[in-house]
From TrEMBL:
InterPro entries: AAA+_ATPase, ABC_transporter-like_ATP-bd, ABC_transporter-like_CS, P-loop_NTPase, PstB-like
GO function terms (MF aspect): ATP binding; ATP hydrolysis activity; phosphate transmembrane transporter activity
Origin superkingdom: Bacteria
Any single GO CC term annotated in Swiss-Prot or TrEMBL for this entry: membrane
Any one GO biological process: phosphate ion transmembrane transport
Limits of the ABC transporter domain: 16-258
Protein name in the entry: Phosphate ABC transporter ATP-binding protein
Keywords assigned by UniProt, alphabetized: ATP-binding, Nucleotide-binding, Transport
Organism name: Waterburya agarophytonicola KI4
Length: 263
């Protein structure tokens, strides 16, 4: 297929560059020849119909697929132009320290609010209490949760509402200063008010990190993202500034998806 995905040049510095990426689940070819840059300090949304490969693509960025046998990557994802995070010599655990992830459903551990966030530091061998307190407060503030939990840090995380739990998971993902945070439909299990507060967070978070988010909601992509990538049947069909992709799509398939004709 000839793919015309060359919208006006994106001028931001690339945080990551995906080059000729293919991915296979056993013999199933799930991602096909993907080339894309992830602009630094911005929100990039991955959209496309169910099964097109959005989650598969997202999971390549923190080597989640390594956890299952039979999965295979080809091609590269360059971080800061110097490390191919798919390189055989690169330790996936190191990659996950630089690139963290927030999942569809809030998944706090059966621990206190404090210990949930502390986890991200403890796995890195940190146990200086003063430093941990500072970092945990900072992560909870950035995640817009501090005021709601500062007097109950030792309570179980399960006492929090769904939206608060998701903000706690965001704090856990942020506490160790990752460079990129991956979000896999982070609001799909939340009500509209909790969704709005997570969406609001995105615009402040991008000052600290680069964000890649899978969303089923085109409205959400339009509201929160700076750049949008449209995928279809394992291919990247179109990528550009969100306003360009939504207002003047270059491809018929993108236009059909955005206008609700496919999906
Ligand atoms: N573990 C797996 N083994 C084999 N095939 C898989 C596996 N996970 C996903 N797939 C297939 O890979 C393709 C892409 O799936 P993926 O979950 O990435 O799509 P998606 O765009 O995120 O879909 P959705 O929007 O429904 O979540 C689909 O055809 C899916 O059936």
């Amino acid at each position: 297929m000839v793919i015309n995905n060359s919208h006006e040049q994106i001028t931001s510095i690339p945080k990551a560059e995906v080059a000729d990426l293919d991915f296979y689940y056993g013999s199933f070819h799930a991602l096909k020849g993907i080339n894309m840059t992830l602009p630094e300090h911005s929100v990039t949304a991955l959209i496309g119909p169910s099964g097109c490969g959005k989650t598969t693509f997202l999971r390549c960025f923190n080597r989640m697929h390594d956890l299952y046998p039979g999965n295979r990557y080809e091609g590269s994802i360059w971080l800061d132009k110097d490390t191919n995070i798919l390189g055989r010599k690169v330790d996936p655990i190191e990659v996950r320290m630089r690139i963290s992830m927030v999942f569809q459903r809030p998944n706090p551990f059966p621990k206190s609010i404090y210990e949930n966030v502390a986890y991200g530091l403890r796995v890195r061998g940190e146990n200086n209490r003063r430093l941990m307190d500072e970092k945990i407060e900072d992560a909870l503030r950035v995640s817009a949760l501090w005021d709601e939990v500062k007097d109950r840090l030792n309570e179980s995380a399960y006492n929090l509402s769904g939206g608060q739990q998701q903000r706690l998971c965001i704090a856990r993902a942020l506490v160790a200063d990752p460079e990129i945070v991956l979000f896999d439909e982070p609001t799909s299990a939340l009500d509209p008010i909790a969704t709005a507060s997570i969406e609001e967070l995105m615009s402040t978070l991008k000052d600290r990190v680069t964000i890649l988010i899978v969303t089923h909601s085109m409205q959400q992509a339009a509201r929160i993202s700076d750049h949008t990538a449209f995928m279809y049947l394992g291919e990247l069909i179109e990528f550009g500034r969100t306003k360009d992709v939504f207002n003047k799509p270059l491809n018929q398939q993108t236009e059909d998806y955005i206008s609700g004709r496919i999906g």
